[in-house]
Write a structure and sequence with these properties.
Number of helices: 13
Radius of gyration: 29 Å
Order of helices and strands: HHEHEEEHHEHEHHEEHHHHH
Shape: globular
Structural class: alpha/beta
């Protein structure tokens, strides 16, 4: 019985060793929906018409199917907790997952309420911009949105800055803890298109287009970091927040960066299947959701105040060498007396490599592919030896 307990202990230790390092990066976590990113669309009618209420509710249920948006049609005398009823009815109130609210008038004389709600839901979850961005998420590292303004010079400068940042992240991807097939990409939204996608800009946090803006989205349309405008669009800012997306989930990050809210979107089954294949795991699996929930809970509580710019390093460094102290002339070399005994000449190490900048990533204790580091193997070997000794002593 004693020996069986020892064997069981060994098995548990071996099984638990695979969880000593996180197998997900922040990008992976971004595809998992923990039901904390639900949008709510409330529609207040101007007349108490139960038949119209039922028809509009059916319409919205069909339009919002496969999305993270729920709706409710309310009669004129209805009230919603924490929602201020619009003064002019009919009207809609969109509530984001972070409790931000957007009031939308339903007063277009040339369109019925049904037609106006259809326009709203199409822009909210089925716009051409959102659909195209979401398609690129499964294979690409992230998407950097460039919302152009009327200032063409500012647009060109912002695009060049983003291009430099994307190239830098592309070079850094080899050092990241988990391989991603494609680097981040740029997605431009023209000034003309921006005017027709005001709900999308509101979700990003852009209430008014005062100049060129940039935002980073990843996973299932999660926004990474703040919206950058004008002179705020710098390589340092872009590199910092893009770096977080490739970081291991064990990094000491503000929870607001680790699992930011999703934007409103449609999540059809085929897109879900394509994403699952690209990720190598099922983001809808209950066990995966439980693991992600535990990972997020293990981080510190959500910080308050301004979001600090993160600092994520993947091991790549560049050094500037001061050549003022280097010997540039062979005549400056000191004279060295030849050894009296050739056998005393020390041999160089067998695996000595030339001094050059290394490009290999630092090994992780346990990689997402299941590789073990030397330290873990040594620990397991010690456990096996001790257990074997105990088993032998138990037999005696």
């Amino acid at each position: 019985m004693y020996i069986m307990k020892i064997k069981l202990l060994l098995i548990l230790l071996l099984l638990s060793s695979t969880t000593w390092a996180c197998q997900y990066n922040v990008r992976d976590i971004g595809f998992v929906d923990l039901k904390g990113s639900t949008y709510k669309l409330y529609v207040f009618l101007d007349k108490d018409n139960s038949e119209q209420q039922s028809q509009l509710q059916t319409l919205l249920n069909d339009k919002l199917y496969d999305s993270n948006v729920i709706s409710e049609i309310l009669l004129s005398d209805s009230n919603v907790f924490h929602i201020e009823k619009p003064t002019r009815l009919p009207a809609a109130v969109l509530v984001a997952s972070n409790s931000e609210k957007l009031s939308i008038a339903l007063d277009k004389p040339n369109k019925t309420i049904s037609q106006q709600l259809t326009d709203i839901t199409d822009q909210l979850i089925s716009s051409s911009i959102k659909s195209e961005i979401l398609k690129q998420m499964a294979g690409n590292f992230a998407v950097v949105l460039l919302i152009e303004s009327a200032d063409s010079k500012q647009n060109i400068q912002a695009q060049a800055t983003i291009a430099n940042s994307l190239e830098y992240i592309k070079q850094q991807m080899v050092f990241m803890p988990k391989k991603v097939n494609s680097p981040p990409v740029l997605f431009k939204i023209s000034a003309a298109d921006a005017k027709t996608h005001d709900i999308f800009l509101w979700e990003l946090g852009i209430n008014k287009i005062d100049g060129t803006a940039a935002a980073i989205v990843y996973g299932r349309l999660r926004k990474m970091g703040p919206v950058m405008t004008g002179n705020e669009i710098t390589e340092e800012m872009l590199n910092a927040y893009l770096g977080v997306i490739g970081a291991d989930c064990e990094c000491d990050l503000d929870r607001r960066l680790l699992h930011s809210p999703m934007l409103a979107h449609r999540w059809p089954r085929q897109l879900y299947l394509d994403t699952t294949e690209a990720l190598g795991f099922d983001p809808e699996n209950p066990q995966v959701k439980m693991e992600i929930s535990q990972i997020i809970s293990s981080h510190s509580s959500i910080s308050t105040g301004k979001l600090e710019t993160p600092d994520v390093s993947f091991g790549y460094q560049e050094f500037i060498i001061d050549d003022s102290s280097l010997i540039k002339d062979i005549d400056q070399l000191p004279e060295v007396a030849p050894p009296e005994n050739l056998e005393e000449i020390p041999l160089p190490p067998v695996n000595q490599e030339p001094a050059q900048k290394r490009t290999e990533p630092k090994p992780k204790p346990i990689t997402p592919d299941g590789g073990f580091s030397l330290s873990i193997l040594v620990i397991l070997a010690i456990i096996v030896v001790i257990a074997g000794f105990i088993i032998v002593m138990g037999k005696k």
